[in-house]
Write a structure and sequence with these properties.
Shape: rod-shaped
Low-confidence stretches: 25-29, 98-104
Structural class: alpha+beta
Number of strands: 17
Strand order of the largest sheet: 3-2-4-9-6-7
Distance between the termini: 119 Å
CATH topology of the largest domain: Rhopdopsin 7-helix transmembrane proteins
Amino acid sequence: MTQAISLTDDWKYTEVDIRDVSNISLTSLQINELDDVNRWYLLRPGENPHLSNKARCVYIATRMPRLTIYNNPVLFFVTENESVNVFLDKELIYTNGEKGHEKNKYGAQWHMVTLPSNYLGRQVIFQLSSDNPRFVGQIDDVKIDEGYRHTQYIFQHDGLTLVSVPLAIVFIIMLMLYYWIYRSSEYKFVYILMAVYFLIFTVFLISRMWTLLFIYDNPAFWHYIFMLSAYTMVLPLEVIAYNILSGTYKKHILVLIFLHSLFLFGSIMGEMAGYPAFNSGLMYYFILINIAMLIISFYLYRAGKSSNSRVTALSWAYLVTTLVYIADGLASHFEVFSTSFLLEQIYILPMAIFVVWLMKNTMTEEKRLTAVNELLKHEVKAERLKASIDPLTKCFSRNVLDNVFKEAISEAEQAGISFAVIMFDVDKFKEVNDTFGHDAGDNVLVSFASIVRRNLDARHTFIRYGGEEFLMICSGYTLEDAWLLAERIREELYAVPLLDNRAVTCSAGVSQWHIGASDSKEQIIKRADKALYYAKEHGRNKCIKEDVFIV
């Protein structure tokens, strides 16, 4: 298989004194004037022509190979912001960007020129013209091969971009999800602005793809998309820094954002007025924006050094990003050095690493906060439980009374299942304290509570109501059921000698919830208390039901 031949030997060039590129046309070309060998200068491989600052048009020539034969010979080359005419000897075989089509003078473009069968050994002349002297005479990747292999080469050129773009889109989706999940976080604006930065970067990469010309063959359009994305890419990073920083730093960042926006606005106005402002201002923009990014990196580092690891990490991401910008600018715009690696493909790499770190840091912090919240919940629950338990008798304290009654009343009214209340009081408890001491009195209360608990199940809630008084809510109990339970407890207490072989007795009042009769917590307790008072007034050691008072 015949390999592609790169035309790299015996190049020469000559500058043409044409000031107005728009006046160049096929009829005005003085190709015959190029027969003068004294007008030509040797051009070494890999070099650009040495042109005057006012150069607008240049001819570059070399010889076609003499022996290699292709079935479908196609000449391939790449230009940027230039109009092109190609001649074999003095025969025009290709034109791009003739008068009336000045839009083709903008943007990077590859060219595939089908060669005639008699191309071998002939002189090929490239006429390159541009309204920007910086781009005049730039021609790259000049080679001859089969047409389909040139097409393969075009797709291979976009290979890294075809990897970078989906990766950037994944980051955009991840950032938007994080913004949605953590929109209450103080760093939520970082996620959304980072997503904007990755989106602009995606547009920036796509606009540089050679394969787009198969879809829409308008280099000028993609040139403007590229320039707009290049001029705005750093703006979201500046806004992020503005939101993070405070005080004097914040004011300085605002000035930088204003200058950036003013430069962008001026460039757009210049383009609309017909002046190539984007291309002319790109070098100045490069200097301005990298100085701004270095300043921002320093401010972020100073702000985050003392207390905020996220801001410090962001400062390093900004610094490395800036260094990549500088390296790319020195290579592609200032031509300080050359590299075969596309630095612009890794513009987002430092920020992507920071985003991954930020996401991991956020998840770790979220887990930590969740653990702390769970611990606090357990502590609050423990405190609430502690507050709801009587420390002496270990039964519920009066704090739970309202909630227990609320649930019992709701169940009774909705399900039609009543409940009962028993109010206990240890008989002559003051006499016990006065005679045997408070320790003995406490022992009586603890023993009484223990006896009561032996008779309880899940339907009962046992509460120390105050002093020697206790309240029991019996779910699903009738008045009679509750009275029988109270009697059993009273008898068990009486059967256990607690004080020097003396029995301790208790009295109880029993009441029942009256379904649908506008009953209330206060009323049912009042009826139980009234029944208890009746028992104590009539000899103690008794259990009295509320129906004693109902006629």
